[in-house]
Amino acid sequence: MGFGLVIGAAALSAAAQQPLPFLHAHDVILFQGDSITDGGRQRTGSDYNHIMGQDYAYVLAAQIGAESPERELVFINRGISGNSVPDLEARWPDDTIALHPQLLSILIGVNDLLSPGERAVTLEQFEAGYDKLLAETIAALPTTKIVLGEPFLLPVGKQKADYATNMAEMKRRQAAVDRLGAKYHLPVVHYQQALDAALTKAPAEHWSWDGVHPTYAGHGLMAQEWLKAVDAFWGKS
User: Fold this and answer.
1) Measured in whole angstroms, how far is the alpha carbon of residue 60 from the centre of its chain?
2) Tens of pLDDT along 155-176?
3) What does the buried/exposed string (b/e) look like for 157-177 if buried means 16 or more CB atoms within 10 Å of the residue's CB?
4) In what order do the strands lie in the sheet with 103-107?
5) Does the pLDDT of residue 219 top 60, yes or no?
6) Burial level of 141, CB count in 10 A (0-12/13-18/19+)?
7) What is the pLDDT of residue 57?
8) DSSP run (H or E) holding 117
9) Hey, which of 39, 65, 153, 165 has its CA 20 to 30 A from 56?
10) Going from the N-terminus, what domains does the chain have, and what CATH number goes with each?
11) Per-residue pLDDT reduced to its tens digit, 172-182
12) CA 208, CA 67: separation in Å to the nearest integer?
């Protein structure tokens, strides 16, 4: 094989392995959700290490940014601690639609289930509100690709006491996310399945420090699962 053919083959191989090959130079990847996505991010400033937070979104931005520097993709984190679906609805026009992302990743649901009193969101409210968000987003941003992350729990800390009861309710919300993924033909990242499988390698405390928020290992696993799901759905686009 000639030198030119070797270089050409290498270039094709690199292109085939490029993460998120459907994205183009300067495209925006937006992460939305609650504290799991928030990751303690800084709200102002230009230091990307702080404004992305310490979470799976940061891990993804780091990995994809390093593997595909020539595209100079723009990663934005708009997760807010404590948010539920109604909170997303209130800030969606400014925090999502106005940013015109080419790829939008959403992880929401744990606060809808666990928040006390008036802050709690029923299954029906969760699914209807989430459905409305997706419909509005697709209408306003028809070319935007959307990724849905299922909410999850692990038996750690305070979550141990009512884990069976809360997980039964969480599974209903996970099923709702699956239904929305099927309705709108969107990929769903099955974090619960990945974390449950990971319990055969290390105890729950290795993956989450309180049953809701992942450790660094948990966020690393989430990033792996996110990439796997997105690549399986759109990798050949």
Assistant:
1) 10
2) 999 999 999 999 999 999 999 9
3) eebeeebeebbebbeebbebb
4) 74-77, 28-33, 103-107, 145-149, 188-189
5) yes
6) middle
7) 97
8) none
9) 165
10) 23-234 (3.40.50.1110)
11) 999 999 999 99
12) 28
